[in-house]
Design goal:
about 50% helix; two-stranded antiparallel ribbon; OB fold (Dihydrolipoamide Acetyltransferase, E2P)
Length: about 230
């Protein structure tokens, strides 16, 4: 007999089917023989035993589109997982780029300016600095694993430019602050300049990040086909 599922409770494993004869039949999920759970409104084929539905088979199989999408999605996930794994298992492929990315990342934690009454400023301190940290770490992985060149090059260039943008923004803000302090203090002559507050970290940031950008421009690059 055929019918449709009126109610199916997955928690207690019980449900009700409305048969084509107009009667209602209780059932338990243990009597469902088809794969996958039954849902309300599903068409089913079943037998009747002691006024209960048994040997229940769903007539609502997955559509061709759903089945194809599931297979494609599964294959894509498996392929992506393999590519990501290859980034860490294919060896140390582009040493210069990976090392420069890590050194620039390290430079984020160095003091770049000594701000009066506040303390030492580091590029890692704000939200942009933390984003750059993540991007540098990812760049190091891409260089290390031999990811697709265009991915690595694009990520490295954007990251390197963000480092210089952040450093420039900090210099501009400090320059404006120094000018205001000189005006309010009534200092004459040279006054406070940006060079009075600069720290050694600026040198390392500029050098390491410049070399990091150079590594992205190098023609020699080992690209692993199996990597991302």
């Amino acid at each position: 007999m055929e019918g449709s599922v009126l109610h199916c409770n997955a928690e207690n494993g019980e449900g009700v089917i409305s048969g084509s004869d107009g009667n209602r039949y209780n059932f338990t999920t243990s009597d469902v023989k088809s794969s996958g759970p039954l849902k309300n409104g599903y068409k089913v084929d079943f037998e009747v035993s002691d006024s209960a539905a048994v040997n229940i088979y769903s007539l609502n199989g997955p559509s061709v589109i759903d089945d194809a999408f599931s297979k494609v999605s599964s294959a894509a996930t498996s392929q992506m997982s393999h590519k990501i794994k290859s980034l860490f298992t294919s060896g140390f492929n582009n040493q210069f780029g990976a090392i420069m990315a890590l050194l620039t990342l390290f430079a984020l934690f160095l003091p770049v300016f000594e701000i009066p009454y506040i303390g030492k400023a580091k590029l890692i301190n704000d939200g942009l600095g933390k984003l750059i940290f993540v991007m540098l770490a990812l760049s190091a992985v891409f260089f290390y694993g031999g990811a697709t060149r265009i991915y690595t090059k694009s990520l490295a260039i954007v990251t390197g430019l963000l480092v210089f943008y952040q450093l420039y923004g900090l210099v501009a803000a400090l320059s404006d602050g120094a000018s205001m302090m000189n005006q309010f203090s009534g200092r004459s002559g040279r006054g406070i300049s940006i060079f009075d507050v600069i720290e050694y970290g600026v040198f390392f940031v500029v050098v390491f990040n410049s070399l990091f950008l150079v590594s992205a421009m190098k023609k020699k690059y080992v690209e692993i086909n199996e990597s991302l």
